[in-house]
Amino acid sequence: MTGNPAVRDGLTWQGLRWAFANGGYACNFHPLAWLSHMLDVEFFQLDPAGHHLTSALLHALNAALCFAALRSLTGRTAPALLSAALFASHPLRVESVAWISERKDLLAGAFFFLVLLAWAHHLRSPSRARFALALFALGLLAKPMLVTLPCVLLLLDGWPLRRWQAFGGERSLAALLREKAPFFLLALASCAVTFWVQSKGGCTQHLEHLGFTERATNAVISPARYFGNLAWPRDLAVFYPHPAIVDPERSRLLTFLASALLIGSLSVLAWRLRARAGFLAVGWLWFLGMLVPVIGLVQVGGQAMADRYSYLPSVGIHLAFAFGLAALARSGGVLRVAAGLVALAVLFAPLPTTVRQISVWKDTRTLFEHALAVTGRNYVAHVEVGRVLGGAGEIDRAREHFEAAAAIHPGFFEARYDLAGALYLQGDLAGAERECSEALRIRPVDALARDFLGRIQARRKGGN
Fold first, then answer.
1. CATH superfamily of 364-460
2. CA–CA gap between residue 246 and residue 10 (Å, rounded)
3. Is the pTM of this model over 0.90?
4. Low-confidence ranges of the chain (pLDDT < 50)
């Protein structure tokens, strides 16, 4: 972000035009996120404290909006409050809040909950429908992951709104779909723009290296991993390498089958209980459905999953849990006490992990050394740690990390390019030329690499 001149200049007319006109910067079209960063620069310049404060306040706002939306939709205060509190304090939220560049998560979250609030009011005052649609459009301009929101609205028609009827009834499926047609059209347009921008920016290049089988396998495994991290958050990292990239020969069949069994069993259970406990089906399908854009069927980047991707999908699990406890508490007696104790335990038990995870984001070295400690064969973390060491003058140690990254993922441009730089500083010009040439084989149009290769070759020939 600080390397982007349009952001560093603050909020200007030129920056406003750039935010909406640039096609592939950062491989996403999220102009409202860029404008948010520009506005922060106006107030705080490049002092990170102010930018972090904005993100923290936005997350607090989202927690309040989550409560307000769920309460408005369900008419229930206590479970809506518990859902919002779990959403606010879970360790998986740390990445979206601590990483300033993930402001788009927070902005999209705010518009998401505002749409739910507006939709709840629309059902009582139909004139609000256009307002909800406008909020949805703004949310898509903050982060296109909101494309699944129309499906969430359909789920809420079943529970708690109870608008579903048998086919051909007063509120048929066709009627509910027609009602939300403008939302679906906006979502389709956003999908088209996003795919074009990501393709233009080169972020879908991993599609060339990962076949459909590898991507489909990860699409089954990653939701199970997200669910596991929600239930038991441990070994959280800023980057989770895709196993098919770093260990392509290793079979993932058992993991795939176990994940499929878990997801299938929970889906069947939620469906069977839909009549008596509609919140379970809605919460579970909310979670799975909102993950669809990021489970890797269309691979963007080299990660298998990311904590930030669970920001809004996790609300479905929190909702199912909170309203499940509320249903248990309605039985009264011992069950009511037990439900209260469980709610307190689940709310407060993860807080030490949340605090520790916040400390992981202290600085770049701490963040990526932690990633190396809790994940295997993490080539991205090796490169980032190497860059920090190189910047501190520890070229020998930096080279070791770059070599490790290149050994894990030979096709990783950054590992080859940075290794060439380390070798150059150590005086190994032949090695530097070899690695820089390999980097250019991976990314032939990179101007910096071409310039660096020219300087290496000139120096080898005795030039300047």
1. Tetratricopeptide repeat domain (1.25.40.10)
2. 40
3. yes
4. 166-170
